[in-house]
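Hey, quick one: can you model this chain's 3D structure?
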Amino acid sequence: MSYKPRVVGAPNTLEHRVYIEKDGQVVSPFHDIPLFANAEKTIVNMIVEIPRWTNAKLEISKEEAFNPIKQDVKKGKLRYVRNCFPHHGYIWNYGALPQTWEDPTHAHPDTQAAGDNDPLDVCEIGENVGYTGQVKQVKILGTMALLDEGETDWKLIAIDVNDPLASKLNDIEDVEKHLPGLLRATNEWFRIYKIPDGKPENTFAFGGEAKNRKYALEVVHETHEAWRRLISKSIPNETDKYKISTSNVAVADSPYKVAATDSTYSSLPKDSRLPAAPIDPSVDKWFFIAAGSSL
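Sure thing. Here's the predicted structure for all 295 residues.
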């Protein structure tokens, strides 16, 4: 199978969207791309939303049909993460696992906080910079549990299976051995990245410890089951807590599956990519943050 992005409009604009195509047909990165990439369920698919070293906060749209990737907006303005010294933009390829959902009505027993209503987040730590809409096959190594404004927000650590280090990275302790300092930097990045915008430092469950591969895979399976309840209509796709577009073309037993002739599908925009719009120079500013401080 071959996935590629269908790009609509110019990056750094409100209209910009990145749909995912499989063999020329749009599929939902939330629902249609399989979670597992092999029969043994040891490798998973990951959708790259944000390439390493970039600042635009791009994410799968839960509300729009077929869930294109778009830039997050706050108070009518496009969102960019700040550069907190010594970091620049996102320090990994950042994205999501398809067919997973952090249920906002369910509090995880280990974090005592409900899910954040998103697919599982992934930090892919390989050497190659990805691109928005890329579908990678990755090996899960562990996870951190960010507590973001009172919600459980798992941050999986993973490696592209084609990375030169992939054979040496099999669990979380291997990351520190072969990529010393990366887990510490990842913890710091998530703790401080909202401080320049006037928010307090984020906190973690487990004292910031990164849990191992076994634990992380349990989280993957739990959130996959939550997604399955959603896509099968065992629970509603819209409540006072969330609203999710569940339209799909490939989930066989889903009542939300639509045909290519359905107007929801046939009205999807064609590829109309444009050069990126300019970014305000303030996005390049560096912020120097003392330990335990807020700006």
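One thing worth noting: The chain has a mean pLDDT of 96.
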